[in-house]
Amino acid sequence: MNAVRPETSAACRLRATLALGLLVLAGIQPVAAADDAQWFARAAVAAADNRSAPFAVIDKRNARVFVFDAKGRLQASSPVLLGLARGDDSVPGIGERAMSEIRPEERTTPAGRFETEPGRNTGGEDIVWIDYDAAVSMHRVRATQKSERRLQRLATPTVADNRISYGCINVPAAFYDAYIKPVLGSRRGVVYVLPETMAAHKRFEFLSRPEASGAAVKSAG
Fold first, then answer.
1. Cβ atoms within 10 A of the Cβ of 96, count?
2. How far apart are CA 161 and CA 98, in angstroms?
3. What gap in Å lies between CA 29 and CA 79, rounded to an integer?
4. In terms of C-beta density within 10 A (0-12 exposed, 13-18 middle, 19 or more buried), how is residue 198 classed?
């Protein structure tokens, strides 16, 4: 039986420092990013696209998740880690391939409207499936490979280093437990992943509807 090696005091201090930094960063959101996400949320609710349910918006350009209630009111936001490669589509059949067979340029987080469902990974951890067929989920960040420095990437103020995953959306554990799990972890839900290579209306048909435009005009006033 393998013994579990206790953490050193230095490692404990590092984890505590990173956790504190992530909690601080979760409350600091770029104004433009928050405005864009809230505009999108109002449009989704005006078009009844969220089906009167709470939902989340992933802003890939700013590497951030925004959680909204059923009426489109912002509840919380947090930095996230995303797919290493930029792009808005998953490679066909990627969900059936071993991770070792996925090339760096194929590690994208797909954009679009996703009907999510709670699930579990092969290790038994609870996750939220974004696109089951493409094996894309939202889950707590895992620091299993120290060389990837995932916790440190989340703690930096820049988004330049938030691209590291195979396509999954990595969320700080405390934020996941406080906001993602209650909204999406026990029932089917909706997550909108905003595109980074094209205008949003090209992925979300409801943005072109009059009711969505009306929501935008109202918010601008």
1. 10
2. 25
3. 8
4. exposed
Which domains does the chain possess? 30-220 (2.40.440.10)
Judge contact between 152 and 18, C-beta under 8 A: yes
Backbone dihedral angles phi then psi of residue 3, each to the nearest 5 degrees: -80, 145
pTM of the model: 0.83
Element (H, E) at 182: helix 181-184
Question: In whole numbers, what is the pLDDT of the chain averaged over residues?
Answer: 86
Confidence label for 213 from pLDDT (cuts 50, 70 and 90): low
Output the six-digit token pair for 218. Answer: 């109202």
Rounded to 5°, angle at Cα 98 from 94 and 102: 60
Catalogue the E-assigned strands of the chain: 55-59, 64-68, 74-79, 82-83, 112-120, 126-131, 136-140, 163-165, 169-171, 189-194
**Residue-wise pLDDT tens digits, 3-39:** 333 444 555 555 544 544 544 444 445 567 789 999 9
Beta strand pairing status for 126-131 and 136-140? antiparallel
